[in-house]
Amino acid sequence: MSRLSIKNVSASYAHQILDNISFEVGAGDFVVFVGPSGCGKTSLLNFVAGFNQPHSGSITLDGKLITGPGSDRGVVFQQDALLPWLNIIENVALGLELKGVAKPEREARAKEVLALVDLAGFEHHKVWELSGGMKQRASLARALAADPQILLMDEPFGALDAFTREQVQALILKVWHKTGKEVLLVTHDIEEAVFLASELVLMTPRPGRIVERLRLDFGRRFANGESARQIKSDPKFIEVREYVLSHFFSGREVADERNYA
Amino acid sequence: MSETTLDSTANAIAEKPVSPATKEKAAKNSIFRSGFVISTITLATLIALWALITHLGFVDPLYLPSPLDVVRKFFDLIVNGYADATLWQHFTASISRIFIAVIVAAIIAIPVGLAIGINPVARAIFDPLIEFYRPVPPLAYLPLIVIWFGIGEFSKILLIYLAVFAPIVVATAAGARHVDPIRIRVAQSLGATRWQIIRHIVLPSALPDMLIGIRIGLGAGWSTLVAAELVAATEGIGFMIQSASQFLVTDIVIAGILVIALVAYIIEIGLRILQQKLAPWRGKVN
Asked: Are residues A47 and A135 in the same domain?
């Protein structure tokens, strides 16, 4: 059963950004859009979030046409999207506050979600007292607390260092597995995309097009207890990663990059 | 990335959780303390120079009385007063004018500033009005205010109010206009209505700018005070200074100036503390 449905979406500003994108997100899917900058993946995510409107085509969630932003889609931004005048629990409870949920109730819910993202005990910390990884986890908690139908993430690891990145990736997989919510994530990091996705969508730029879709299970394997290192050194993982890489780089470009190392 | 060259900077700005906060605080304290020491030395030097010049008789005390004379006059003003009012009465007259003006200005200017910042129509209405009168010195429109509203207390407060109003509006509007669009999207994606966005995102985002506006406005208010008390005042520090200057009572002039400087400085520090309390994130996050 498909929940999110993207039909014939095109958009052009100065030049064409997205060319006739059609896509369905099935129940429980972790969809990752991967491609170089300019392939329109962030634009597509913004259309799904409702921040912008595509010039043609339609996007529906559970059959309902998306015309603007709404709390049925939880968004995790790239960075610094926590509000500094609120402490962590107030940030996480913001969505519920806006819906008029009473304070004890929304704080109880926020505490639950903070525990889910391993931030129990940080409820009353200030935003600037948290590290980058903790902030991203708090952002995830805020999106989850409003109980959205689907989670949208725009390069959520973009501002994190390699160590923190792996931790937050692991956490997102855990949350995905536990809540069963669909995730739509945009990234330009191919290894990350292969690791996380249950459905990997490769996009090419100018104009943004979907060139291939891959059904993967590495994320599911991780959620079921296999270690990240085990998965990432699995020949099958390496094969998929190299296959995806070869989509974006001709052999020569890859060789050139190696020469610089 | 050239890690070697950026190493020290990277270390300096590397994000670490909670623990180094105390260290930072200690560093800040020591800077503050050494700054305080330097400031004190500067002031002491200035006063010593002043004392030396007057002591050696370089300047006629009529034009520049010694620091000691000024201090003596200051206490005399507290006890005996000047022009039928004690220093305290002059002071309360002035400070209440300024406070009424600032409070009324803030109450009106903050909503107007927010409206200018978020609504193009409000901006089109108010912006030219404010930009038109803002650069005009209060002394230039003082006569008009007197013609329209007479020489009573209202005119004096109105003049200060006008000087305070513009900076608060301008700062608030700038703050409201430059809200990080990501923050607005955050609220939208959580289902916020337009009013909720204003209340939960725009207002707190603009709060640091509002406080800066009030600080600047207060400064403008003090500079207008003397002008406001030019007209038919019988009390007020500004009045006291002018009146004393006409009789060449220089020590009172200097004492009056020092009182204004001191009070303005204390209020400024109070506002900085308030800013730290109300918007502690300023400078820590964008």
From this structure: no
Sign (positive or negative) of CA dihedral A81, A84, A88, A93: negative
pLDDT tens for residues B228-274?
887 778 899 999 999 999 998 899 999 999 999 999 899 989 998 99
The answer on A5 and A91 residing in a single domain is no
**Which of chain B's residues have a Cβ under 8 Å away from the Cβ of A49?**
185, 189
A142 interfaces chain B, CB cutoff of 8 Å:
yes
Cβ-based contacts of B204 with chain A (< 8 Å)? 83, 85
| B97-112 pLDDT, tens digit each | 999 999 999 999 999 9
Q: In this structure, which amino acid lies at residue A153? A: M
Lowest mean pLDDT among A91-95, A117-121, A249-253, A256-260: A256-260
Domain that residue A179 falls in: 70-162+170-188
B198/chain A closest Cα distance in angstroms:
12
Verify whether the Cβ–Cβ distance A146 to B192 is below 8 Å.
Answer: no
CATH number at residue A105: 3.40.50.300
ipTM: 0.86
Closest chain A residue to the Cα of B276, Cα to Cα = A85
Chain B residues with CB inside 8 Å of A71's CB? 189-191
**Candidate from A127, A130, A143 with C-beta closest to B281:** A127
